[in-house]
Amino acid sequence: EQKAIATPKRTKEILEKYGFSFKKSLGQNFLIDVNILKNLIHNAGITKDMNALEIGPGIGALTEQLAIAANKVVAFEIDGRLLPILEDTLQAYDNIELINKDILKADFEEIWEQYFQDANPVKIVANLPYYITTPILMQLLMANLPISSITVMMQKEVAERMAATENTKEYGSLSIAIQYYTEARVKMVVPKTVFMPQPRVDSAVLHLEKRATPPVTVEDEEFFFQLVQASFQQRRKTLRNNLSRHFKDKLAKPQIEEGFEHAEINGTRRGESLNMQEFATLANYFKQQIK
Ligand code: SAM
């Protein structure tokens, strides 16, 4: 077995050999610690009878470990300069497909048809480019892909917001959006020192287990997410205040109060104290009123 890509020495050698310069704008912070990668893959629950979809292979640090652990790896890399490097660093593996494309522009139906026709479950595993963590995850979740889970390295602060429960300062519309589709857990906190170059912020591994169905029944998803967002518009204001302001052209004050009564929610509460079921009850009621 050849030496792992994810060591400071080998990474430097590869970067020098190709005269590669990092593009900050693409969130290029490469992992240089094999143990962290093995831990990430362990947290993802990847085994030889599973396929992995990776976003942003870089010079192949995680891709290599996934190739060893999984049946097959399909990896999307936006930076064309990395393709010839990856062909070289990953040449020992015959179960990797590299796609030189922006993940946000991926045609997943085509990807599944082309690469994931076998019966193996597909999991997403990545060290995400931090500048687009939320758009990538929301797009993957809303596309309703036939995946079982997503396990990703990302900024610690954002991971904590995604996994937060009510009555914490991290809890907000992002927590609800992510947890509507998945069960979210922060699996480990990762120091800056395992990256090259080192990012400014700490990182964490977030594991998202896809739900078969949402945990609450929502009549109109768009309206539900809009109400959730409005409830957190000004975090220090009451629910009554935020919602009256947001729906001022659509709902009269007494209608808003009826909604609170129906949902058994005190209007003086703040958005951060409501659980997902309470938001759903309010949204379903108001949606009926607006119709
Ligand atoms: N997986 C490698 C590792 O762990 O060392 C690299 C991770 S680095 C944080 C993020 C990678 O995502 C970079 O290689 C970057 O070029 C790539 N990337 C950035 N934006 C992307 C996009 N929209 N689609 C696909 N890849 C992207």
Automatic annotation (TrEMBL):
EC number: 2.1.1.182
SUPFAM superfamilies documented for this protein: S-adenosyl-L-methionine-dependent methyltransferases
MF-aspect GO terms: 16S rRNA (adenine(1518)-N(6)/adenine(1519)-N(6))-dimethyltransferase activity; RNA binding
Record's protein name: Ribosomal RNA small subunit methyltransferase A
Function statement: Specifically dimethylates two adjacent adenosines (A1518 and A1519) in the loop of a conserved hairpin near the 3'-end of 16S rRNA in the 30S particle. May play a critical role in biogenesis of 30S subunits.
GO cellular component, as recorded: cytosol
Compartment(s): Cytoplasm
Domain Ribosomal RNA adenine methylase transferase N-terminal: 36-212
Source organism superkingdom: Bacteria
Keyword Transmembrane: no
Keyword field: Cytoplasm, Methyltransferase, RNA-binding, rRNA processing, S-adenosyl-L-methionine, Transferase
Annotated S-adenosyl-L-methionine binding sites: N29, L31, G56, E77, D102, N127
Similarity annotation: Belongs to the class I-like SAM-binding methyltransferase superfamily. rRNA adenine N(6)-methyltransferase family. RsmA subfamily.
Catalytic activity entry: adenosine(1518)/adenosine(1519) in 16S rRNA + 4 S-adenosyl-L-methionine = N(6)-dimethyladenosine(1518)/N(6)-dimethyladenosine(1519) in 16S rRNA + 4 S-adenosyl-L-homocysteine + 4 H(+)
Gene giving rise to this polypeptide: rsmA
